[in-house]
Amino acid sequence: MTTTLGLPEPVRACLFDLDGVLTQTATVHAAAWKETFDAFLARRDGPGFRPFDAVADYDEYVDGRPRADGVRSFLASRGITLPEGDDDDPPESDTVHGIGNRKNTLVLQKIKEMGVDAYPGSVRYVHAARDAGLRRAVVSSSANCHDVLIAAGIDDLFEVRIDGVVAAERHLPGKPHPDTFLAAARELGVAASEAAVFEDALAGMEAGRAGNFGFVVGVDRVGQADALRRHGADTVVQDLAELLGGTA
């Protein structure tokens, strides 16, 4: 049985990813990753380097993961190992943290230049969830989550925010581990079985499945519906407004 929000009756809380689910920033992140990795690979391998694929590589190795995990994951796919470095490594350093910091510098520049837009259908859905009395949290790997929410004008719609900053402070492993989602559910006072996860990343699907959440909604912005289902989605939509019709 589903509610008018397309969720099973036991669900009392909604846990939303940020980039690609609430805000139109996933393409900005993908572009920043591509610029970062291509510059590194060009220095390392020369003109014949194999570039970072902003769709396939982004989806498989970095989307939804904490920044340093994304660096490690992609480099491992190319058989590359780098020193970890330190959190404050300069962006030009060829270390895991240096590359991650270069990506963050680029994404902040792009957000400043381009601004941040929320998906209208997602905003409608979150308003409907609030009106229906459902608890609401944002769960993001991004350390820039709070700034993005404010820039998009939707910060006031959520009661809890578990982002990259909070995860680092609490030593919570990021997606595909379920810990950040579980932390959000705890803060909202609900069991995992009473919470729905809304994610567009394959790592987020795995986190939802690993945490035994009551419902996992895959948001397909890039034509990967089958992959989202394989990785744990109970249902897949292209826009959250599709759920407002009362069916999942």
From TrEMBL:
Protein's name in the database: Beta-phosphoglucomutase
PANTHER family assigned: 6-PHOSPHOGLUCONATE PHOSPHATASE (PTHR46193), HEXITOL PHOSPHATASE B (PTHR46193:SF18)
E.C. designation(s): 5.4.2.6
Family stated for the protein in its record: Belongs to the HAD-like hydrolase superfamily. CbbY/CbbZ/Gph/YieH family.
GO molecular function annotations of the record: beta-phosphoglucomutase activity; hydrolase activity; metal ion binding
Enzymatic class: isomerase
Record keywords, A-Z: Carbohydrate metabolism, Hydrolase, Isomerase, Magnesium, Metal-binding, Phosphoprotein
Record keyword Acetylation present: no
Region: Disordered, residue numbers: 80-99
Reactions the enzyme catalyzes: beta-D-glucose 1-phosphate = beta-D-glucose 6-phosphate
InterPro entries: B-phosphoglucomutase_hydrolase, Beta-PGM-like, HAD-like_sf, HAD-SF_hydro_IA, HAD_sf, PGP-like_dom2
Cofactor(s) this protein cannot do without: Mg(2+)
